[in-house]
Amino acid sequence: QSSQSLWNRLSVLLNLLPSAADLQESGLALCNEVKDVLSGAELPDLKANLLLPEDVALRNLPPLKNAHKRFNFEQDRPIFSAVEEVSQGKARVLAQAVFPLLEVQPVLAAAEEARRNRLMRDMAQLRLQLEVSQLEGSLQQPKAQSAMSPYLVPDTQALCQHLAVVKQLATSGRFIIIIPRTVIDGLDFLKKENAGARDSIRYLEAEFKKGNRYIRCQKDVGKSFERHKLKRQDLDAWNLYKILDSCKQLTVSQGSGEDDTTGMVTIITGFQLEDPSTFSAPMQSAIQAAASASVEIKNVLEFYKQWKEMG
């Protein structure tokens, strides 16, 4: 009863297996011994004592001592086909696992909600990894351009000032555009007074709605990355740190270590980067933090120019 995780996974497995009735109605050629086993499979006390290869292999294993008491290991084991062995095994599982599972359901009830949440989170994570893997395989990357990052993360300034360029990058089929939540928040903050922000919001909403494979929103990475004091003192630096956090989260979600991210992600910005000394100290620190994390920061127009020059 303490092995909740084992029971939960076993119940998932059981739901994937055909029922005894399905096996009986399947038209499979089964011997009479196996048919007898299946006919009583729905009963808590299964009478079958036919040996499976697993029984012989696991003989004398202490946890199975009680389960093996009713078997005569000296008897000759009938020769079953693979289908017959699986069918008999299914019936045995029903009797020896499902009914005990029903008995411990009250114990599992308290953990069910947490288990469901974990399962949904894990499934979402696996789905994201699969999608990203498929996208990487579908990117049209000529050799000359394979050195350019496959993932581009535009900041608010890049979208407000150079939306047309970002659109071209997104429709090229050569990059995956990642839009962090903090960038969307920045656009929302500017939309009342900035036409570029409004245009960007409309564009992103349309792309997210139709499920563009090459442009996607990344949810907030959590409060562990917050820097409230910096947010009040230097909003641009704070936003860059938040975008960098999203870049790190992107690489972590794909199972990459921080030492293996060189050239993988590029932040494309509307800021001019020719002379970093003109930036504030916090902004310079944020740029340095990006370099330390192997995340490039490039002006969106310079990146676009470099891409075009590479053909």
What descriptors fit this protein?
single chain, 311 residues, alpha/beta, Rossmann fold, five-stranded parallel β-sheet, 14 helices, 5 strands, elongated, nucleus, telomeric DNA binding, signal, PIN_dom
Task: Give a verbal description of the structure.
The chain is an alpha/beta fold. Among the domains are: 36-73, no CATH class; 151-221 and 234-251 and 261-310, 5'-nuclease (Rossmann fold, 3-Layer(aba) Sandwich). 56% of the residues lie in helices and 7% in strands. The chain has 14 helices and five strands. It has helices spanning 4-16, 20-24, 32-39, 53-57, 82-103, 105-138, 156-161, 163-171, 181-190, 195-210, 228-233, 235-253, 281-292, 300-309, and strands at residues 151-154, 176-180, 215-218, 265-269, 296-299. It has a five-stranded parallel beta sheet with strand order 3-2-1-4-5, sandwiched between helices. Helix 12 (235-253) packs parallel to helix 13. It is elongated, with a radius of gyration of 29 Å. Residues 1-23 form the signal peptide. One of its GO terms (biological process) is nuclear-transcribed mRNA catabolic process, nonsense-mediated decay. GO terms for molecular function: telomerase RNA binding; telomeric DNA binding.
